[in-house]
Amino acid sequence: MKGTTVLCFDFGLKRIGVAVGQTATNSGRPLTTISAVSGIPDTAVLKRVLNEWQPELVIVGQTYSDTSKSKSNKRFNKAHNEFINQLTSQYGLPVEIINEAYTTLAANHALAEEGIKAHNRTALRDQYAALEILNTWMNERHNQRTKTLDQLNSNL
């Protein structure tokens, strides 16, 4: 059974966390954190990651907020959209957007559970948040497939 290689990004204006996953095994792992300036990623690192992993699909987390009209959120949303456009137009990758609410909190909790001290978490937090986003996407995909199979079986 051939799976799909998926890269997942936790987008930020200073750092972009990356996780990699495989749909055949429904599993993923934290990969790296890419430095960014005002949401513009280090292009050489982004290109290296994309070339190395050759993803067939990219997942990008997005926070849905009632405060999206503030000036800082407008700047964030603009940079976020430009990042997605870069992935689709420059690299020709299909992109899916998924809600990333509370993933940084979950990542901090997971790192604490692993015994990582608070002052050492910054370097890992974004890639673990990307893994949280990826796991959410994989779980939703799995639940959707299970529901479809259950419906098919009930029609037999």
Structure description:
The protein has 156 residues and is of the alpha/beta class. The protein has one domain (5-151): YqgF/RNase H-like domain (Nucleotidyltransferase, domain 5), CATH 3.30.420.140. Helix content is 48%, strand content 24%. It has 4 helices and 6 strands; from the N terminus they run E-E-E-E-H-E-H-E-H-H. It has a 6-stranded mixed sheet with strand order 4-3-2-1-5-6, with helices on both faces. Helix 3 (103-113) packs across helix 4 (122-154). The longest helix is centred in the last third of the chain and has 33 residues, at 122-154. It is globular, with a radius of gyration of 16 Å. The two termini are 25 Å apart. The model has no long low-confidence stretch (mean pLDDT 87).
List the helices and strands and how they pair.
Layout: E1 5-10, E2 15-22, E3 27-37, E4 40-41, H1 43-53, E5 57-62, H2 71-90, E6 95-99, H3 103-113, H4 122-154
Parallel strand pairs: 1-5, 5-6
Antiparallel strand pairs: 1-2, 2-3, 3-4
Brief summary of the model shown:
This protein is α/β, with parallel strands linked by helices and 156 residues long. It has helices at residues 43-53, 71-90, 103-113, 122-154, and strands spanning 5-10, 15-22, 27-37, 40-41, 57-62, 95-99. A six-stranded mixed beta sheet has the order 4-3-2-1-5-6, with helices on both faces.
CATH top-level class: Alpha Beta
- Count of the separate structural domains: 1
Task: Write the H/E string, N to C.
Answer: EEEEHEHEHH
Q: Quote the average pLDDT.
A: 87
The total of helices stands at 4
User: What is the global morphology?
Assistant: globular
Find the count of extended strands (DSSP E, 2+ residues).
6
Distance between the termini: 25 Å
Radius of gyration: 16 Å
**Strand content bin:** 15-25%
Named at the architecture level, the CATH assignment is 2-Layer Sandwich
**Sheet with the most strands, sense and barrel status:** 6 strands, mixed
Structural class, by secondary structure, is alpha/beta
Q: Order of strands side by side in the largest beta sheet?
A: 4-3-2-1-5-6
CATH superfamily: YqgF/RNase H-like domain
Poorly predicted runs of 5 or more residues: none
CATH topological fold name: Nucleotidyltransferase, domain 5
> What level of helicity do the residues show?
40-55%
